[in-house]
Amino acid sequence: MFRDKGCGEIRESEIGSVIAIAGWVFRRRDHGGLIFIDLRDRSGLCQVVFSPDVDGAAHERAHDLRAEYVISVSGEVRKRPEGTENANLPTGAVELYVTKLQVLSESAPLPYSMEEAADAGEQLRLRYRYLDLRRPEMQQNLILRHRATKQMRDYLDRNGFIEIETPMLTKSTPEGARDYLVPSRLNPGHFYALPQSPQLFKQILMVAGMEKYFQVVKCFRDEDLRADRQPEFTQVDLEMSFIDRDDIIGLMEGMIQEVFRSVLSADVQIPFRRISYQESMDRFGNDKPDMRFGLELKDMADLAGKGTFKVFLDALQSGGKIKALLGKGMAGISRKEVDNLTAEAQSFGAKGLAWIKVKNGFDSPIAKFFPEDVLKAMAERLEAEEGDMMLFVADRAKVVYDVLSRMRLELGKRLNLIRPGFEFVWITDFPLLEWDDEEGRFQAMHHPFTSPMTDDIERMMSGDLTDRNLLSSLKAKAYDIVLNGFEIGGGSIRIHSQTLQKKMFEVLNIGEEDARTKFGFLLDALQYGAPPHGGIALGLDRLIMLMTGAGSIRDVIAFPKTQKAFCMMSGAPSTVETKQLRELHIKTDVITEEKAQGAVCDGL
Length: 604
Prior knowledge:
The chain has 19 helices and 22 strands.
């Protein structure tokens, strides 16, 4: 046997016992007579001691040990001498005096120090991901992910759900993000798509009478990446029959409460708050608000219209919005800092940033354009006090919301306003449709299978589909769950009526032939007795990122990709042999780096 227990599992109760442990050499210290090794495995770290008085041969061989050698040692567990204990380690009161050493594997010189691995560049750590994953914090992230996923599976099993796998090779339905396509060798010129979600299949399962389905499933979207997004990601996906919105919300709140209590010993209070989509936009500028601090956006259109500041008046004249944000305690910042703040707003998409300091009255280049009573009313609406600063953006609604929501988050961090802990909120009452300027038509805000609110179904069925006011007023039975400013899940009640589904396609300007080409098998299934149903998908990667406090979902995924969707460790994606492309009936005219270099040489 290589070991009797893990390095991090030895305790004072085992003093005097002879125990074998195995792991990686983390740190080696040669004190002349004694050699100390910090030996590490997944369970933790233990100090082992090589003494010439205990075993001269093992002591002599210990001189050759280097970082990340894999060794097995056995010896007597002893209490550390008084004053040398390490209270930061569970094993800090004991040490193991070695009587036998076996070197199981040697390590080449490391590309970076494991002691300083957290400070190594991320590109380097991703290149040597197998070393990065040896870090205790990375291992704890993946262990927490395992425990949370298991808890979810257990909870859903107890609530009558069955886990069913859906296909990875499926049909391309280009109504969402860009698909990853897989060519079919057996069907030349035809392609599978990797699933963006199991949406159609889980609805088919409800028609099939499964009633309660779930799976922990990989999904794929070929879209631009960021800290909380990967080309392949994991969802906890579920669907239920004979339910409505409150049933799903209640089920998810119970699951999340149980997971946080079991995995983090955190008491999450339910029910979670609910706010409408429009309220979220008006108060926070986005539909994934961080509720751990204030600094809410305030509408200033009525007050701004009482002044003569041309920028504000032009925005109002063109149907835009004017909103403001409170810069708490920021009246003392310098003009250079104000300019930097303006540049920051412009980088977010604003044309500029108007500001008024509450400082011995009102100090601002634009203060002269407003009567004193209007300036006081502005300060009162923002709850601005002496020493604060009012920040204004005037533009199209989308720009105003986007700029101020991002500035709100930046100021929340800069001013240390964000409370620790976990703040959940449900966003409900989404618009059913959103206008796409490029396409010149309405698109589904979520997906084409989302049911309108009950009161809106008749309006949509009998209304004038050319009436933009009507269509923009329709609400969806959709809901997102947000944690600390991140959307961690979303879902909806689905359309289960074939008649209503056809009307929805008509609204979206998807013709009958086009609908059958894209979604024919679902439309067929809806003819044969579809129950009322709905579901939700939780983004497991984002949830675990927030539970662990990691700065990126790459820190909670074993083998993630970069923002260019590249795997630094394996080298994927890569070129393939011409023979493989020929078998798939694919011809490419992409110039590889090698060919490009050859062309340059030929040209010279």
